[in-house]
Amino acid sequence: MLTRIRTPILVSLDGEKHSRQRRQVLPAFTRAALDSWRPIIDRLAAETVRDVLANPGCDVVQRLAIPMPVRLIAQLLGVPDTDVDDFRRWSEASVQITDLDLSVRGARKLAGSLRGSWAMHRYFTGQFAVGGLKGSDTILGRLLAENAAGSLPDRELFYFAMLLLLAGNETTTNLLGGMFDTLAAHPEQYELLRADPDSVPMAVEELLRYLSPAQNVYRTALNDYRVGDATIPARSRIMLSIGAANRDPLAFDEPDAFRVHRNPTQHMTFGFGAHLCIGAQLTRMEAQAVLRELVTRVDRISVVGAPRWSTNSLLRGPTRLAVRLTPA
């Protein structure tokens, strides 16, 4: 769905337009910028894990996997504390555009998503009009300060904010929720991780491979293209299966096994080349922060009852996952 949005956001562009916009937003993701956000991420991880610990049997999707990335994005954008509840409500509505189907339910979700997006647009437009969300400590302020052209139109700032919300929210939610389910299902791997906390970054890479929170992306062939014995005709719509690539037995030994010490450096979760996910490191930092909290505070992770998973063909993750954390 994201690739079909007819607005000039990064994921829907190619060639020079894509390169130009990517150069414009790169200053928001420098090492210095990411390091400056680490204390915020660590604080949010500690707060949300503590909340799940205090509420045995709670739905970790609602308690942690959804609110953590939304609250982080709100802070990076400089959304005032008084507006965070509204921002979260609009955000949760807006991202439903990634999970639609041809049904009455799907039509209702589309309508709700559009209402959320319009509410977000009105909010950003109002903030921009009075100079809001453009402070030096915000992600948009960094873009304005470091953009070579000296400024960016408010329209492009809004598109970037929505891209951050759509691309950086739902996939991270799926990763965080799937992390709890996977660690509960593989207690021996969780024990290995607790015994070796320095392996947290490696374990997150394995979770990214094993879970593939973004399952598929779509592209259009510009020309006839030969792959093996088959020819893909020009203008064909192509589905690229990230989930399948991440379980390729030619690339990964025992690909269906979850191993925290695998270090799968070739996984395709964030894409490749010119379209490599620009926010990949931010997602890694969130998952690593939560996992560090878990291995420090939690002895065992247990799933309570049957989880419910998304039926979305693009994005994969639990939509409900009741868990009980045993304190260390």
Q: Quick gist of this model?
A:
The chain has 328 residues and is mainly alpha-helical. 52% of the residues lie in helices and 11% in strands. The chain has a three-stranded antiparallel β-sheet with strand order 1-9-6. It has a two-stranded antiparallel sheet with strand order 2-5.
What does this 3D model show about the protein?
52% of the residues lie in helices and 11% in strands. With 328 residues, the chain is mainly α. It has a single domain, classed as Cytochrome P450 (Cytochrome p450, Orthogonal Bundle), CATH 1.10.630.10. A 3-stranded antiparallel β-sheet has the order 1-9-6. It has a two-stranded antiparallel ribbon with strand order 2-5. The longest helix is centred in the middle third of the chain and has 32 residues. The termini are far apart.
Rg estimate, integer Å: 20 Å
Indicate the CATH class.
Answer: Mainly Alpha
Strand arrangement, largest sheet?
1-9-6
Q: What's the helix count?
A: 12
Instruction: State the low-pLDDT regions, or none.
Output: 1-7
Total domains: 1
